[in-house]
Write a structure and sequence with these properties.
17% of the residues lie in helices and 28% in strands. With 180 residues, the protein is an alpha/beta fold. The protein starts with a helix and ends in a 16-residue tail after the last strand. GO terms for molecular function: maltose O-acetyltransferase activity. One of its GO terms (cellular component) is cytosol.
Length: 180
Amino acid sequence: MIKYLKYILYQLTYNILPLIMQIPSFAIRHAILRLLLKKIGKKTSIFRGFECIAGSHISIGEHCVINKNVFMDGRGGNLTIGNNVDIAREVNIWTMEHDVHDDLHGLKCGEVTIEDHVWIASRVTILPGVTIGQGAVIACGSVVTKDIPPRVIAGGIPAKIIGQRNNQLKYELYYRPLFE
């Protein structure tokens, strides 16, 4: 019975959530997301076009901005996002992928942790088993395959350290435009 209920919840989030996330009402979208996700912190904005799988394993902290067309996968373990995290458009975060070295096309799973004050730019892909340290910045179009240390700027395919972030990280995000 529990397995059947989990299957129904999975189908709802995978097939119906994209329709719900097109509703231009922030209040309606967030009310539904609060039922589907493990946690959404105060003053967090999730824009239209958001998609997820296995939302019961996805936690989003306070004062986060999750822009349009972001995809999050919680099937392979917990996906934890800290406070004051800015995730730009079209970012994909995966906790499960196929193992290219497995003869039977098996799965490779790993939790993803994104710590406080991280800025992930547009079209970044984050693969399973990765931790992105506090205050790190991930450049546009990067593919994150390994842990990223705190307060660095990383970019490329695969993402490598290309700079250092030198501010005090005192800001608090809050961005909620109309009809987004």
